[in-house]
Amino acid sequence: MVRPHLQYSIVDDERLSAEEMDERRRQNIAYEYLCHLEEAKRWMEVCLAEELPPTTELEEGLRNGVYLAKLAKFFAPKMVSEKKIYDVEQIRYKRSGLHFRHTDNTVQWLRAMESIGLPKIFYPETTDVYDRKNIPKMIYCIHALSLYLFKLGIAPQIQDLLGKVDFTEEEISNMRKELEKYGIQMPAFSKIGGILASELSVDEAALHAAVIAINEAIEKGVADQTLTTLRNPNAMLMNVDEDLAQEYQKELLEAKRRKEENARLKNGSISEEERDVYEELLTQAEIQGNINKINIHVALVQVNEAIDRQDEVTLMTGLNRPALSLSGVLQQNSSWYLAQLCDCKEQRMQVIEWNVC
């Protein structure tokens, strides 16, 4: 397996002819795009709890829109049901290939994204997907959607795999030829966070300043100061719990360090015009996503501890935490909830013990 080097020294570049440097640049673009495909694939597999086609076949595998419609069902279940997905088992597709009705699936995905408020600047056209006019725009949109859903607390954060996954020289060359065949301008994946922030903000300058202040506070490592910046109205952050200041500080610092490390791995692979301040700083969406992550974790810990202690009062407090987004939780049913959850947890522990044995 071959992983192209994403950094080149000046000496190395001076030894290359202009033609060789251009060849290397085009190979790097193809490799980076394959990494973005792998990122999208792994993220969708987690959301759908289903295996997707191999990375090198993913573009073709998404053209019928079935996986896109299933993704829409995941984040907008009231809009998209399994019955509405055309050729959901892909039987017709495997037998006869694409049918014009497969475009209905992509349309459902686009409408579902619109229903949750993802800015339309990220959307591909239906023909970009079905006719393969611009598949990278679709992958770019999936990346933007992943960040937006992470911000909303609906989905996990997509991984940054640039420089961390391997493809053969043949796979990279084949992808390069495909990109050149369609003459596609690669979207700026590294700018998604900044674009999303500006599209969602009423006052872009105030939001940017607030996010910069949060990043600076995270770096200082004083939880109370970080909490103060998180509660700045201009940051437009929701569900910030002052009792979780230490947890936010720890999680956000770890997220920031991961992003800085990923930026170092990419050093030299992103052109100056593509580079922006959010290459190493957490975006508003990433900050909100990590706040949601901590809120959910703390709520689940509280619920599990209440189950272990047979504590109805604490259980109800946990179940009513906004982070869990549970509806219809009734106080008069607290004893029944506790009994049912105790049974569920006991059964799960038995399954785990059985698997270990």
- Average residue pLDDT: 90
**Tally of alpha and pi helices:** 16
Q: Helix and strand string, N-terminal first?
A: HHHHHHHHHHHHHHHH
Number of structurally distinct domains:
2
Main beta-sheet annotation: none
* Amino-to-carboxy terminus distance: 37 Å
Based on CA atoms alone, the radius of gyration comes out at: 23 Å
Task: Classify the beta-strand content into a percent band.
Answer: under 5%
CATH first level of the largest domain: which class?
A: Mainly Alpha
| CATH fold naming of the largest domain | Actin-binding Protein, T-fimbrin, domain 1
Helix content: 55-70%
Contiguous uncertain segments of 5+ residues:
1-12
Q: Supply the CATH architecture of the largest domain.
A: Orthogonal Bundle
Please identify which CATH superfamily of the largest domain we are dealing with: Calponin-like domain
Structural class: mainly alpha
Form type? globular
Give me the count of strands: 0
What does this structure look like?
- This protein is mainly α.
- It has 2 domains: 18-198, Actin-binding Protein, T-fimbrin, domain 1 (Orthogonal Bundle); 204-267 and 279-356, no CATH class.
- The chain is 62% helix and 0% strand.
- It has 16 helices and no strands.
- It has helices at 10-15, 18-48, 58-62, 66-75, 91-96, 103-116, 126-130, 135-152, 169-182, 192-200, 204-220, 223-230, 245-266, 284-309, 312-319, 334-356.
